[in-house]
Design brief:
Strand order of the largest sheet: 1-3-6-9-11-13
Mean pLDDT: 80
Number of strands: 14
C-alpha cells in the first residue's frame, strides 16, 4: 500500500490504501478502520496516467471487511479521487463485506469506473449509508456469481441493497 502524498494520509483506505499497484490480497481481516473520503477498510485506485500498471487485475480473496467507515465505500472502494478509472479490472472472491458505514454512499462496496469487476462467493450484508446501503456500481461492468446482498440499509428504500448507474450488470 502506498500513500500518494503526505496530505493523502487517512483520506483514502483507512485500513489499506493501494495506489497505482496491482495487489493480490488474501486471508485478511480488515476491521474497525476509517477514511475521510474513499474506502474505510480498503481503497484501490490509480491516477489514470499509467494504464500499463493495470495490465493485470487486482485480486482480493478470502477476506472479511467489517466495521469500517468512510465518506464513500465504508468497506471497500474501487476508483475514487474524482478521476475516471477505465483501466481497473478486479476479482473479488470469497469475501464478506459486513457492518460498514458511509456518510454518503455506499456502505459496503463502492465500484466507480471499474472496467471489469468480477464478484464470486461474496456476501455484502448489514452495511449502512444514506443513499445506498450495500453496493454501488457506477459506469462499470460487473459480473456477479454466488453473491448475497442482504440486510443492507439506506434512508432511501430504492437502493438499500444495490444501485447501478450507467453500468452493465451480469448476474
Amino acid at each position: 500500500a502506498d500513500a500518494a502524498s503526505p496530505d493523502m494520509i487517512n483520506q483514502n483506505g483507512g485500513g489499506v490504501q493501494i495506489f497505482n499497484r496491482v495487489p493480490h490480497l488474501a486471508n485478511l481481516i480488515v476491521v474497525g478502520n476509517m477514511a475521510l473520503t474513499y474506502g474505510g477498510g480498503i481503497s484501490v485506485w490509480e491516477n489514470d496516467d499509467d494504464p500499463v500498471q493495470w495490465a493485470t487485475q487486482p485480486v482480493l480473496e478470502k477476506m472479511v471487511i467489517s466495521g469500517n467507515s468512510a465518506g464513500f465505500g465504508g468497506g471497500l472502494s474501487f476508483g475514487g479521487a474524482g478521476a475516471h478509472f477505465g483501466n481497473i479490472c478486479a476479482f473479488i472472491r470469497d469475501v464478506t463485506i459486513t457492518g460498514n458505514t458511509a456518510v454518503n454512499h455506499p456502505g459496503g462496496l463502492n465500484n466507480a469506473w471499474c472496467k471489469n469487476l468480477e464478484l464470486t462467493n461474496v456476501t455484502i450484508s448489514n452495511n449502512y449509508a444514506p443513499l445506498c446501503g450495500g453496493m454501488l456500481a457506477e459506469s462499470s461492468n460487473v459480473t456477479m456469481r454466488h453473491v448475497t446482498l442482504s440486510g443492507n440499509r439506506a434512508d432511501s428504500p430504492v437502493a438499500e441493497e444495490l444501485a447501478s448507474v450507467n453500468s452493465h450488470m451480469e448476474m
